[in-house]
Amino acid sequence: MKTIIYSSDYCPFCMRAKQLLQHKGVQFEEINVDGKPDIRAQMIERAGIHTVPQIFIGETHVGGCDDLFALERAGKLDNLLNQE
């Protein structure tokens, strides 16, 4: 499942989210929004939220770092990642 994370270089929540995905062996596309107002605007339009990270797994908007970890704790993240 294609995974995209909109992030910023110095965001600790972005780092935690990426670490969890890496730990699970997930390959993801990282889109850095630093100094790129057009990319940030694209993220806001797609997610409806202006903070990073914003994570998408397939067409599902997961949300931010806390949302990603909540899925993991609930045992739902693997199912979402393995959908085709």
Automatic annotation (TrEMBL):
Keyword line: Cytoplasm, Disulfide bond, Electron transport, Redox-active center, Transport
Single biological process term from Gene Ontology: cell redox homeostasis
Record InterPro entries: GLR_AS (IPR011767), Glutaredoxin (IPR002109), Glutaredoxin_subgr (IPR014025), Glutathione_S-Trfase_N (IPR004045), GRX_bact (IPR011900), Thioredoxin-like_sf (IPR036249)
CDD domains assigned to the protein according to its UniProt record, in alphabetical order: GRX_GRXb_1_3_like
Ranges for domain GST N-terminal: 1-84
PROSITE patterns in UniProt: GLUTAREDOXIN_1, GLUTAREDOXIN_2, GST_NTER
Keyword presence, Cytoplasm: yes
A GO-annotated cellular component: cytoplasm
GO molecular function: glutathione disulfide oxidoreductase activity
This protein's record includes keyword Magnesium: no
Source species, domain of life: Bacteria
Entry similarity comment: Belongs to the glutaredoxin family.
Protein purpose: Has a glutathione-disulfide oxidoreductase activity in the presence of NADPH and glutathione reductase. Reduces low molecular weight disulfides and proteins.
Name of the protein described by the UniProt record: Glutaredoxin
Source organism of this protein record: Neptunomonas marina
